[in-house]
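Page 47, continued from p. 46.
Same chain as before, 243 aa.
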Amino acid sequence: MALKLTIEYDGSNYSGWQLQPRHDSIQGRIEAALERIFAAPVRVFGSGRTDAGVHARGQVASISIPRPFDLAELQRALNSILPPDIVILDISIAPDNFDPRRSAHSRVYEYRVLNRKLPSAFDYRYSWLVREHLDLDAMISAAHIFVGEHDFAAFRSLGTDVTTTIRRVISSEWTRDAEVLLYRVEANSFLRHMVRAMVAAMIDVGRGKLTADKVATILDGLDRHAAPANAPPGGLYLVEVRY
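Result:
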C-alpha cells in the first residue's frame, strides 16, 4: 500500500532531512519508527531535502507499507514513537506511481527575520536576528527581481550535482508583522541553499549595502562568489509542497 505523509518538524537538532551515516536525520527517525511498527525496514522518500537546522510545516513523503494498516492508527503509532519535534500531520492513500519529488508542481518556503536590537529567548532558533534598521520597501523591490524563469547559478551551493540551475519562481514577497519580516517564495523547485542566498542578498538591500539593481546584476552574472553568504538556516521553513 502506497501512502502519502505530511510532516512537520523542528530541524534544530537534526543534520537535515536526508538519511546520513552516523548523523541524526528526520528521514532516519521516521524510518526507525516505521521499522518498530512493522518489524521490517520501510523506506521513506521525501519531496526534497532540507538542510541541517531548517524546519518544515508541510514536508511530504511517501512510503510503501508491507501489510494493510489502519491509517489513523498508523499516524497515532508514529507520533507516539517519534520525538516531539517531528509530527506526522496526515497520512493518506497515494497512487502507486506517486513520487513526492517528481510529482510536485511547486514548493513554498518562508523565511523569518527578527528585526530588532535584542535577541528573543523564544525565537532564537526560528528566525534570523538582524539588529539594523531594514528598508522593507527596498527589499520588496529586490524580491520582485527573482520572479520568473532565471538561471540561479549565483544563488545556490557550489558543487551540487544538478543538470540545470534554471528555476521558475512563481511568487516572491516580503511582509511585516511588528518586529518580524516574513519572506515567502514559491517556485517549481529550488537549488540547494537558493532561498537562503536570496534572503541574504535582500537583507543587504534592506541594510543599504546593495541596491535592487545590483541584485539583478548578480543574478544575471551567474557568479556565486558575487552574492553574499547564505542567511542562517534557522529562519527557513518548507511550508507546502503543491501537487
